[in-house]
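Appendix B, record 7
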Amino acid sequence: MTNLGYKKYFSESSFKEKVQTMAKQAGAKVIYAAFLLYYLMKDPLVPTKVKITIAAALGYFILPTDAIPDIAPLVGFSDDLGVLVFVLNQISDYITPETKIKAIQQLQRLFKSLKKEDIHDLEHKVF
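Structure tokens (predicted):
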């Protein structure tokens, strides 16, 4: 399970800053997973216990010093993706179609050339 100590690193502003500055480098898979978790955090129907786990995963994503530095070419975000996908798989029952729509809309704003088949492929890789 994700180290819950990372939850202290999550804030909405730091999440948005990380996404804005690192989206292209992180890639669509990582950002899609992060957006799914972000929108689950905002869902009032998701229990607090689950939100604490989400905050820990997003805190790990935000933290600049993690197991594999994010500046490392090609592998820098692989650990982030692993943590995000692990948590998504643990809490997948809470993911609604609305959550996916919000995440995809944000993803398409960042990755202008993303096509529907790319999103379908992302969902299979993320889940």
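Remarks on this record: The chain has six helices and no strands. The radius of gyration is 13 Å.
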